[in-house]
Protein backbone atom coordinates (compact mmCIF):
# COMPACT_ATOMS: atom_id res chain seq x y z
CA UNK A 1 0.00 0.00 0.00
CA UNK A 2 2.85 2.37 0.82
CA UNK A 3 4.46 1.76 -2.55
CA UNK A 4 1.17 2.44 -4.36
CA UNK A 5 0.86 5.70 -2.44
CA UNK A 6 4.42 6.68 -3.32
CA UNK A 7 3.89 5.84 -7.01
CA UNK A 8 0.71 7.91 -7.25
CA UNK A 9 2.15 10.86 -5.31
CA UNK A 10 5.32 10.89 -7.42
CA UNK A 11 7.86 9.69 -4.85
CA UNK A 12 8.53 6.42 -6.71
CA UNK A 13 9.06 6.92 -10.43
CA UNK A 14 10.97 3.81 -11.56
CA UNK A 15 10.15 0.13 -11.09
CA UNK A 16 13.73 -0.50 -9.87
CA UNK A 17 12.83 1.46 -6.71
CA UNK A 18 10.44 -1.36 -5.77
CA UNK A 19 12.53 -4.34 -6.92
CA UNK A 20 11.56 -4.34 -10.60
CA UNK A 21 13.43 -3.56 -13.80
CA UNK A 22 14.99 -0.19 -14.60
CA UNK A 23 11.83 1.09 -16.24
CA UNK A 24 10.01 4.41 -15.81
CA UNK A 25 6.62 4.08 -14.14
CA UNK A 26 3.65 5.65 -15.86
CA UNK A 27 0.88 6.04 -13.28
CA UNK A 28 -2.53 6.29 -14.96
CA UNK A 29 -5.62 7.64 -13.23
CA UNK A 30 -8.95 9.22 -13.92
CA UNK A 31 -9.37 12.75 -12.59
CA UNK A 32 -10.52 13.26 -9.02
CA UNK A 33 -13.84 14.73 -10.15
CA UNK A 34 -14.52 11.63 -12.30
CA UNK A 35 -15.83 9.36 -9.60
CA UNK A 36 -15.78 7.33 -6.46
CA UNK A 37 -12.85 5.04 -7.26
CA UNK A 38 -10.47 7.99 -7.63
CA UNK A 39 -11.82 9.57 -4.45
CA UNK A 40 -11.35 6.25 -2.67
CA UNK A 41 -7.70 6.06 -3.79
CA UNK A 42 -6.97 9.59 -2.57
CA UNK A 43 -8.84 9.17 0.71
CA UNK A 44 -7.69 5.65 1.60
CA UNK A 45 -4.40 5.01 -0.20
CA UNK A 46 -2.63 8.36 -0.55
CA UNK A 47 -3.96 9.60 2.80
CA UNK A 48 -5.60 12.59 1.08
CA UNK A 49 -2.25 13.56 -0.47
CA UNK A 50 -2.68 14.97 -3.98
CA UNK A 51 -1.80 12.86 -6.98
CA UNK A 52 1.66 13.71 -8.28
CA UNK A 53 2.59 15.59 -11.43
CA UNK A 54 3.78 12.24 -12.83
CA UNK A 55 0.19 10.97 -13.14
CA UNK A 56 -1.19 10.67 -16.67
CA UNK A 57 -4.93 11.22 -16.72
CA UNK A 58 -7.23 9.01 -18.77
CA UNK A 59 -10.80 9.52 -19.89
CA UNK A 60 -12.31 6.41 -18.28
CA UNK A 61 -11.45 2.89 -17.18
CA UNK A 62 -11.57 1.51 -20.72
CA UNK A 63 -9.08 4.16 -21.82
CA UNK A 64 -6.89 3.43 -18.78
CA UNK A 65 -6.88 -0.33 -19.41
CA UNK A 66 -6.04 0.18 -23.09
CA UNK A 67 -3.13 2.48 -22.27
CA UNK A 68 -1.93 0.08 -19.60
CA UNK A 69 -2.00 -2.88 -21.99
CA UNK A 70 0.39 -1.09 -24.34
CA UNK A 71 2.70 0.41 -21.67
CA UNK A 72 5.14 -2.03 -20.07
CA UNK A 73 5.90 0.48 -17.29
CA UNK A 74 2.32 1.46 -16.65
CA UNK A 75 0.14 1.03 -13.60
CA UNK A 76 -3.57 1.71 -13.25
CA UNK A 77 -6.29 1.02 -10.69
CA UNK A 78 -9.98 0.32 -11.04
CA UNK A 79 -12.64 -1.82 -9.43
CA UNK A 80 -11.56 -5.46 -9.34
CA UNK A 81 -14.46 -6.79 -11.48
CA UNK A 82 -13.29 -4.47 -14.27
CA UNK A 83 -9.62 -5.49 -14.03
CA UNK A 84 -9.39 -9.14 -12.95
CA UNK A 85 -10.89 -10.79 -16.08
CA UNK A 86 -8.80 -8.73 -18.54
CA UNK A 87 -6.45 -10.67 -20.85
CA UNK A 88 -3.80 -8.09 -21.65
CA UNK A 89 -2.93 -6.86 -18.15
CA UNK A 90 -1.85 -8.44 -14.88
CA UNK A 91 -3.78 -7.65 -11.69
CA UNK A 92 -1.35 -7.19 -8.81
CA UNK A 93 -1.49 -8.79 -5.39
CA UNK A 94 -1.07 -6.13 -2.70
CA UNK A 95 -0.34 -6.04 1.01
CA UNK A 96 -1.27 -3.57 3.73
CA UNK A 97 2.20 -4.00 5.22
CA UNK A 98 5.11 -6.37 4.81
CA UNK A 99 4.87 -9.36 2.50
CA UNK A 100 1.37 -10.60 3.27
CA UNK A 101 0.21 -10.10 -0.33
CA UNK A 102 -3.39 -10.84 -1.28
CA UNK A 103 -4.37 -11.34 -4.90
CA UNK A 104 -7.64 -9.89 -6.23
CA UNK A 105 -7.99 -13.06 -8.35
CA UNK A 106 -8.28 -16.75 -7.54
CA UNK A 107 -4.91 -18.48 -7.72
CA UNK A 108 -3.27 -19.52 -9.93
CA UNK A 109 -3.10 -16.54 -12.28
CA UNK A 110 -4.34 -17.43 -15.76
CA UNK A 111 -1.62 -16.67 -18.30
CA UNK A 112 -2.37 -14.25 -21.13
CA UNK A 113 -1.95 -16.94 -23.80
CA UNK A 114 -4.79 -18.98 -22.20
CA UNK A 115 -7.17 -16.02 -22.36
CA UNK A 116 -9.96 -15.49 -23.49
CA UNK A 117 -10.74 -19.25 -23.29
CA UNK A 118 -9.98 -18.99 -19.58
CA UNK A 119 -10.13 -15.81 -17.53
CA UNK A 120 -9.08 -14.89 -14.02
CA UNK A 121 -11.89 -15.02 -11.49
CA UNK A 122 -12.42 -12.66 -8.57
CA UNK A 123 -11.06 -13.71 -5.19
CA UNK A 124 -14.51 -13.24 -3.67
CA UNK A 125 -13.55 -14.52 -0.21
CA UNK A 126 -10.76 -11.93 0.08
CA UNK A 127 -13.23 -9.15 -0.70
CA UNK A 128 -16.01 -10.48 1.55
CA UNK A 129 -13.71 -10.85 4.56
CA UNK A 130 -11.86 -7.58 3.96
CA UNK A 131 -8.58 -9.48 3.60
CA UNK A 132 -7.90 -7.70 0.30
CA UNK A 133 -6.39 -4.37 1.44
CA UNK A 134 -8.38 -2.05 -0.80
CA UNK A 135 -12.05 -2.86 -0.34
CA UNK A 136 -15.00 -0.55 -0.13
CA UNK A 137 -18.55 -1.33 0.76
CA UNK A 138 -21.72 -0.13 -0.88
CA UNK A 139 -24.42 1.22 1.38
CA UNK A 140 -28.06 1.92 0.68
CA UNK A 141 -29.30 4.93 2.61
CA UNK A 142 -33.03 5.29 3.06
CA UNK A 143 -34.78 8.53 3.89
CA UNK A 144 -36.65 7.95 7.13
CA UNK A 145 -39.36 10.14 8.52
CA UNK A 146 -42.27 9.90 10.94
CA UNK A 147 -45.10 9.58 8.45
CA UNK A 148 -43.72 6.53 6.55
CA UNK A 149 -43.53 8.53 3.31
CA UNK A 150 -43.48 7.09 -0.18
CA UNK A 151 -39.73 7.83 -0.41
CA UNK A 152 -39.09 5.80 2.74
CA UNK A 153 -41.28 2.91 1.56
CA UNK A 154 -39.60 2.79 -1.88
CA UNK A 155 -36.13 2.97 -0.29
CA UNK A 156 -36.88 0.09 2.06
CA UNK A 157 -38.32 -2.03 -0.76
CA UNK A 158 -35.22 -1.33 -2.89
CA UNK A 159 -32.81 -2.22 -0.07
CA UNK A 160 -34.73 -5.42 0.69
CA UNK A 161 -34.79 -6.35 -3.02
CA UNK A 162 -30.98 -6.05 -3.15
CA UNK A 163 -30.73 -8.66 -0.38
CA UNK A 164 -32.84 -11.25 -2.19
CA UNK A 165 -31.19 -14.03 -4.21
CA UNK A 166 -32.20 -12.27 -7.45
CA UNK A 167 -30.93 -8.92 -6.14
CA UNK A 168 -27.60 -10.44 -5.11
CA UNK A 169 -27.30 -12.08 -8.54
CA UNK A 170 -27.94 -8.71 -10.23
CA UNK A 171 -25.39 -7.02 -7.96
CA UNK A 172 -22.85 -9.66 -8.95
CA UNK A 173 -23.63 -9.16 -12.65
CA UNK A 174 -23.15 -5.40 -12.19
CA UNK A 175 -19.62 -6.02 -10.88
CA UNK A 176 -20.19 -5.94 -7.13
CA UNK A 177 -19.17 -8.74 -4.80
CA UNK A 178 -22.27 -10.25 -3.30
CA UNK A 179 -22.56 -10.37 0.48
CA UNK A 180 -24.80 -13.45 0.66
Q: Can you summarize this structure?
A:
With 180 residues, the protein is mainly alpha-helical. The chain has 7 helices and 3 strands.
Task: Report on this structure.
This protein has 180 residues and is mostly helical. The protein is built from 7 helices and 3 strands. It has helices at 2-8, 36-44, 61-69, 80-83, 124-129, 150-162, 165-173; strands at 26-29, 56-57, 74-75. It has a 3-stranded parallel beta sheet, with helices on one face. It is globular, with a radius of gyration of 19 Å. The chain starts with a helix and ends in a 7-residue tail after the last helix.
Notable characteristics:
180 residues; three-stranded parallel beta sheet; globular; mainly alpha
What's the assembly state of these chains? Answer: single chain
Number of strands: 3
**Main beta-sheet strand count, sense and barrel state:** 3 strands, parallel
Run of helices and strands: HEHEHEHHHH
Distance between the termini: 28 Å
- Average of per-residue pLDDT values: 91
- Evaluate the radius of gyration: 19 Å
Overall SS class:
mainly alpha
The rough form would be described as globular
Amino acid sequence: MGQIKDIYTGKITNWNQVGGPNLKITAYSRRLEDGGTVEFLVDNVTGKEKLGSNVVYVYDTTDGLRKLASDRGGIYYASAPEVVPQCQIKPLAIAKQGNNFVAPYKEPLIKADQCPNQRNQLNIDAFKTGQYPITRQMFVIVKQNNNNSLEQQVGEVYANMLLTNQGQKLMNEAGFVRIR
